[in-house]
Amino acid sequence: MPYSYVYISSMTREEFTQLASKEQAALRRFLMAACGGNREVADDVAQEALLKAYVAKDRFQSEAGFSAWLRRIAFNCLGDYQRKERLRGSTYDLDKARGVAGEGQSDQAFEYQELYHAIEGLTLSERTAILLFYMEDRPVREVSQIMNVAEGTVKGYLSRGRDHLRAMLKE
Asked: How high is the mean pLDDT of the chain?
């Protein structure tokens, strides 16, 4: 089903706030998984993405809609954050990521602990494709728009990501 081209030339603050409010929880879940459970990093990246989206709200153009546009900004912000951290010599604290409890602080929060740890071991591109496709049920076409790569490239990221996950989870 082809997407219709959407262009909002002058999104009001109220329209942006309403759209962002609907996406905030899903965006945070996506970033928490992409950051290996590091709540502080996920919150910082989400805040940066929302700020950048707000500043650019009058230039919003997307075939896939606000949700995909916001994920693309978040993906770019996460990449920027990781590049800055590599330059500083910082890395994620994977032991801390293993100990992160979910919102309910229950044993169920650790049910997928090994999977999230393995996802953290993927490249940013593989991790983003896996999270958007499998966890957010977004079609390959939309993932390619968010990541600004060809659909075949997304399929490659998904294939390599699955292979890497399979190998990491066997260990």
From this structure: 79
Q: How far is CA 115 from each of CA 91, 97, 119, rounded to the nearest angstrom?
A: 19, 11, 6
Quote the strand ranges of 23-164, DSSP E: 61-62
CA distance 32 to 47: 13
Distances (CA, A) of 156 to 7, 22, 67: 30, 31, 23
pLDDT (tens digit per residue) in 81-97: 888 887 776 554 444 44
Q: Is the pTM of this model over 0.70?
A: no
pLDDT tens per residue across span 130-164: 999 988 889 999 999 989 999 999 999 999 999 99
**CA distances from residue 4 to 1, 7, 18, 64, 144 in whole angstroms, order as listed:** 9, 10, 21, 8, 16
3-state secondary structure of 62: strand
d(CA 81, CA 125): 14
Instruction: Tell me the three state secondary structure of residue 98.
Output: helix
* Domains, the chain: 6-170 (1.20.140.160)
